[in-house]
Design a protein that fits this description.
- With 336 residues, the chain is α+β, with helices and mostly antiparallel strands.
- Helices cover 54% and strands 10% of the residues.
- The protein has twelve helices and four strands.
- A four-stranded antiparallel sheet has the order 2-3-1-4, sandwiched between helices.
- The longest helix has 25 residues.
- The two termini are 30 Å apart.
Length: 336
């Protein structure tokens, strides 16, 4: 798992420019590659020191057991990703990671059945985190990978060999690729620009990194061949799109389930791209859970006032959706 997230951090760093170039949905702000990279980096770095010996050279027995627990390791990475998630794509990936950890809890080894369960739980949770989920995005890629993994695993009759795991991983990546190709025809904005979805490509890269890390094989760079808009000579598509008004507001806040439902409803009324997901599995002494909140709104003040009327938000960020662009139509270095 640590190798997977390390590979994903490197791959997304290498591909962030091209992912940014084709990022036109839900807003043409050219930052999907950067957001995914920064979010995955937070997850990977949360695990860098995991398992390092203590000053006395000894590990606590409970800590060591947790380090051998695939689900516990991914949960740690997922919480770090959630706390530092950037943008729509980063927030959805952090939801995916936290949910994937749940079926793996208590297991020291990944099997085909566990992977299928993890991918299925993750895609369902990602779809449900959005108030208005849209096909043709990274959600569709997650769903396709999960369904393919479940179908192949069902044919293994409980076989928990590494060979069966490899078959499930291969099927998940192939289905993800097919889903990425389909995104162009699922969203009018992508079809008009003749590009595939940036978040979907990022998710494909992440899944191929999982396959590579588990099977000890090289990344399949040929997966990206022929994806519309993804060749190096292609322009930055998003710079030709109209600038988007408004801002992205993100924060973490502790709320009761009722207050969380109220906040989601009111944010839906104020803006769009509303994502709310629970951070951590347990409530505090007051019965409140921690939530990561994301929304696009025309004006941040009403949204922040609404959030603060229900609780005390932390890690608040407000970012312009319209990136600065130079007269030649390219994104400025600062905008990148």
């Amino acid at each position: 798992m640590k190798r997977w997230l390390g590979k994903a951090e490197t791959a997304l760093g290498n591909h962030s420019d091209r992912l940014n170039a084709i990022n036109i949905f839900p807003v043409a702000d050219g930052d999907t590659g950067t957001n995914l990279y920064l979010t995955v980096r937070a997850a990977a770095r949360a695990l860098q020191d995991a398992g390092a010996p203590s000053a006395a050279g000894q590990e606590n027995t409970g800590q060591q057991a947790q380090l051998n627990d695939v689900g516990a390791v991914l949960a740690r990475a997922g919480q770090a990703a959630m706390e530092q998630a950037k943008g729509n794509s980063g927030t959805l990936f952090s939801v995916f990671l936290c949910a994937a950890a749940e079926p793996l809890a208590g297991h020291a080894r990944l099997t085909s059945s566990l992977l299928a369960a993890a991918l299925n739980r993750a895609q369902i949770r990602a779809w449900s985190a959005l108030s208005d989920p849209v096909p043709g995005t990274m959600l569709s890629v997650m769903e396709a990978a999960g369904r393919a993994a479940a179908a192949v695993d069902a044919g293994q009759n409980g076989n928990d060999s590494n060979h069966a795991l490899g078959l499930v991983l291969d099927a998940a990546v192939e289905a993800a690729l097919e889903a990425v190709v389909r995104t162009e025809g699922q969203l009018d904005a992508l079809q008009a620009a003749h590009v595939v979805d940036a978040g979907g490509v990022g998710m494909l890269l992440i899944l191929d990194c999982l396959r590579s890390a588990v099977l000890g094989e090289e990344l399949r760079n040929e997966l990206l061949d022929g994806l519309h808009g993804y060749d190096l000579q292609d322009p930055h598509i998003h710079t030709r799109m109209p600038a988007d008004d408004g801002v992205e507001v993100m924060c973490t806040i502790s709320l009761s389930p009722l207050d969380a439902a109220t906040l989601r409803q009111r944010l839906d009324e104020l803006g769009d791209s509303v994502i709310m997901s629970q951070v951590g599995p347990s409530a505090d002494a007051g019965g409140r859970y921690r939530w990561r909140v994301h929304v696009h709104v025309p004006d941040p003040v009403p949204a922040l006032d609404m959030i603060r009327s229900l609780g005390d938000p932390a890690d608040v960020s407000v970012s312009e959706l319209a990136l600065p662009r130079d007269p030649a139509g390219e994104v400025s270095a600062e905008g990148r």
